[in-house]
Design brief:
There is one protein chain. The strands form two sheets. Strands 1, 2, 3, 4, 5, 6, 7 and 8 form an eight-stranded mixed β-sheet that branches. A three-stranded antiparallel β-sheet has the order 9-10-11. The protein is globular. 20% of the residues lie in helices and 36% in strands. It is built from four helices and eleven strands; from the N terminus they run αββββαββββαβββα.
Length: 202
């Protein structure tokens, strides 16, 4: 029991499955525009295979060579926006976003010098734009619900569970939030993390 107690009091993973999950880190960059704080966003390159044209924060998968999720967020911000890591002032970390037991995102918030944004990676980033923090604080995002119905594969072992193939799988409702700013619409994972950020600073 003492060994078990000691083990349970060691640092534990954030959630069951964290060690094997696809782990990503993102940066929420704050920049000053005309002495007013803005949040910077990327439009993903239209030539990318995954989610071309979607709006996102800089970030990506955590590599084995990254010392920590924060290091991954800084590296990705440097690679995508061309910003010198020494000019990225990390203010802190927000709560992790757990999409599923197999996918987790670690968000960080940092201030950067707008003058540093001059040579972003065109292979990954189509364009960048900013939204005033004051606008985000006053804006009311709207929500639509997406229903997801579990669909077991044909080899699912129904014979091992009560009710077998008559088991009632429950659909899951996903809240999709939307922010409309000028010609841009922010939704999906970026909108969910943005909503949490805005609620935090409120």
């Amino acid at each position: 029991m003492d060994k078990l107690k000691n083990k349970l009091n060691e640092n534990q993973p954030l959630f069951i499955g964290e060690e094997t999950a696809l782990r990503s880190a993102i940066m929420i960059p704050l920049v000053q525009v005309d002495k007013e704080w803005h949040v910077l966003f990327e439009v993903r390159s239209l030539t990318m295979r995954s989610q071309p044209g979607d709006i996102s924060f800089p970030g990506g998968r955590i590599d084995p060579t990254d010392a920590s999720p924060m290091d991954a967020a800084i590296r990705e911000t440097h690679e995508e926006l061309g910003i010198d890591p020494a000019c990225i002032n990390v203010l802190g970390q927000m709560s992790a976003y757990i999409s599923s037991p197999s996918f987790v995102v670690y968000p960080f918030v940092a201030t950067i010098d707008q003058d540093q944004i001059h040579s972003f990676n065109r292979q990954e980033v189509e364009e960048v734009f900013t939204i005033p923090v004051d606008w985000l604080l006053s804006y009311q995002p709207y929500m639509h619900t997406v229903s997801v119905q579990p669909m077991p594969l044909t080899d699912f072992p129904y014979e091992k569970i009560v009710n077998g193939d008559k088991y009632q799988w429950r659909p899951r409702a996903i809240e999709e939030w939307f922010y409309d700013f000028e010609k841009y619409t922010i939704w999906g994972l970026t909108a969910r993390i943005l909503k949490h950020f805005v609620e935090t600073i409120k």
